[in-house]
Prior knowledge:
This protein is an all-alpha fold. The chain has helices spanning 3-39, 45-52, 57-62. The longest helix has 37 residues, at 3-39. The model has no long low-confidence stretch (mean pLDDT 77).
Amino acid sequence: MEKKTKWKEGLSVIVLTILVFYYFLILGVFTFRQQEEAQLFVPAWSNVKAVLYEPGGFCAVAG
Length: 63
């Protein structure tokens, strides 16, 4: 292989690696953030307190 071809090949591998890395970084961040927002459930504190004061309530809340 010629010297020119080696550095061109090396440069293309580096550029491709960077592009793939950023693609997965951006895809992962947006995908997981949307999933987290969709699954987020924060119950009202009054409901949690009512369950805690029942017998076995801590086990019900802690899961």
